[in-house]
Write a structure and sequence with these properties.
single chain, alpha/beta, six-stranded mixed sheet, two-stranded antiparallel sheet
C-alpha cells in the first residue's frame, strides 16, 4: 500500500429524515448540519470528498461548503431500509466508471456527527497506513453506569435477570474498579480498503482491524430532537476549548 494514499471521503446524506425533517440541511450552530462534516474532511488529509444523496437541496448545500456531489443517488438506494454498504459500492463504482478514480482507502463519515475533528480523520489515516490495516474505526469507552455487567433483560415470565442469565440474587456485586473496560463504536470514522466491499459477504471490516479511542465529548449521533440538543451543548463546549479546531 503506497505511503501517500488516495483516501476517498464518502458522506452519506439521505433526504426524508423522519426523526428531524430536513435534518442534514437544518441550521446547526450557524451552518447546515452536513457542513460540519464536510469542513472537518476539508481540513484533513483525504484526497477527495463526495456526498451521496438523493436530495437536490442537500446536494446544493454540500457543494456550497466544498464537497463534490457528482451524482444523485438512485431511489432504490435512498430508503431508510437500505444498508450502507450498497450505497458505498454504488458511489465507488460510479467514480470508477465515470472518473476513472481508484482510491486506496474509503473514509465513511456520517453527517449526523458535527463534533468530528480533522485530527480524528488524520489519526485513522495514519493507523491505516502504518499498520497496513483492512479497516480502522473509532471507539469510545462505555461509561461505567452503562457497563454490560449491570445490564438486565426481561424473562418470558416478566422477571429481570442479568444479561448473562444469572439470577440477580446470585450475581456478585463488584466495585467499579474491578470491572473490565468495554468500548463501543462511535461512528466518527470508518476507514477501510475498497477491496473489503468485494468480499463475501460484502463489508467494511475484513480481517485486519485496528481501532483508536476518542474522548466521549466527540460522540454525536443526531437522530431525534433530544440528540440535537445534547450534541449542540457539546459543540458549544468544544468551541470554547482552545485545543480543538477553530470554528
Amino acid at each position: 500500500m503506497p505511503k501517500n494514499k488516495k483516501i476517498l471521503a464518502i458522506i452519506p446524506a439521505r433526504g426524508g429524515s423522519k426523526g428531524i425533517p430536513g435534518k442534514n440541511i437544518k441550521n446547526f450552530a450557524g451552518k447546515p448540519l452536513i457542513a460540519w462534516t464536510i469542513l472537518s474532511a476539508l481540513k484533513s488529509k483525504v484526497d477527495k470528498i463526495i456526498v451521496t444523496t438523493d436530495d437536490p437541496q442537500i446536494a446544493e448545500a454540500a457543494k456550497k461548503h466544498g464537497a463534490e456531489v457528482p451524482f444523485l443517488r438512485p431511489k432504490h438506494l435512498a430508503s431508510d431500509h437500505v444498508a450502507i454498504v450498497p450505497v458505498i459500492k454504488h458511489a465507488v463504482k460510479w467514480l470508477k466508471n465515470n472518473e476513472n478514480y481508484h482510491p486506496d482507502g474509503i473514509a465513511l463519515l456520517y453527517p449526523t456527527n458535527p463534533l468530528r475533528q480533522a485530527e480524528h480523520i488524520n489519526q485513522a489515516i495514519e493507523i491505516f497506513t502504518d499498520k497496513q490495516a483492512d479497516c480502522v474505526f473509532s471507539v469510545s469507552e462505555i461509561p461505567l453506569h452503562h457497563h454490560p455487567y449491570w445490564m438486565l433483560k426481561k424473562t418470558p415470565d416478566n422477571h429481570l435477570i442479568s444479561i448473562n442469565n444469572t439470577p440477580l440474587k446470585k450475581k456478585k456485586l463488584k466495585q467499579r474498579q474491578q470491572l473490565p473496560t468495554f468500548y463501543f463504536r462511535n461512528d466518527i470514522i470508518y476507514l477501510f480498503r475498497p477491496g473489503n466491499l468485494e468480499e463475501k459477504p460484502s463489508n467494511v471490516y475484513s480481517d485486519k482491524i485496528e481501532f483508536f479511542i476518542t474522548d466521549e465529548i466527540f460522540n454525536g449521533d443526531i437522530n431525534i430532537l433530544e440528540d440535537w440538543h445534547v450534541t449542540l451543548e457539546k459543540f458549544k463546549r468544544l468551541k470554547k476549548c482552545t485545543k480543538t479546531r477553530k470554528f
